[in-house]
Amino acid sequence: MEIYVDADACPVKNETVRVAERHKIIVHMVSNQWIGLPSSRFIRQAIVASGSDKADDWIAERAGVGDIVVTADIPLAARCLQNKAQVVGPTGRPFDEESIGMALAMRDLNSHLRENSEFKSRGASFSKKDRSRFLSSLEETVRTAAKKG
């Protein structure tokens, strides 16, 4: 089991490292540029080429059965689920085979509305409650994956 983090805009990098250290799991922090990370022997930083979806491709090519992916990117979540990885969003929302179809449909609908109208979506600000929910969700996901492994 390893954890892959879509790290460029991820607000829960430190929380992911805390859980990984507790369970002694390698964490791959994947980004298009160097980012400051906490010091940990469990972190592996992967800096990929600039460009659309390069970090997503790196993660999707490697994450599979038994692994956990942390991302808010719905298409990346879908790709990782196809590879049988488990996926958790930064707010603690787990993605699974049942929820990913609706998440993709809502993403496409919102994109269409933004392109064709005055609709401007502002994402909700990231809260302490989101951070806490993420920690609980990631911890539960790690424990469940460990039992399966």
Characterise the protein shown here.
The protein is globular. Helices cover 47% and strands 16% of the residues. It has one domain: Rossmann fold (3-Layer(aba) Sandwich), CATH 3.40.50. It has a six-stranded mixed sheet with strand order 3-2-1-4-5-6, with helices on both faces. It has five helices and six strands, in the order βαββαβαββαα. With 149 residues, it is an alpha/beta fold.
CATH fold descriptor: Rossmann fold
Note the total helix count: 5
Assign the CATH architecture: 3-Layer(aba) Sandwich
CATH level 1 class label: Alpha Beta
What is the N-to-C succession of helices and strands? EHEEHEHEEHH
Question: Can you lay out the helices and strands and say which pair or pack?
Answer:
Blueprint: E1 2-6, H1 13-23, E2 26-31, E3 43-47, H2 54-62, E4 68-70, H3 74-82, E5 86-88, E6 94-95, H4 97-116, H5 128-148
Parallel strand pairs: 1-2, 1-4, 2-3, 4-5
Antiparallel strand pairs: 5-6
Helix pairs in contact: 1-5, 3-4
Give the key terms.
149 residues, Rossmann fold, alpha/beta, 6-stranded mixed sheet
Short description:
The protein has 149 residues and is of the alpha/beta class.
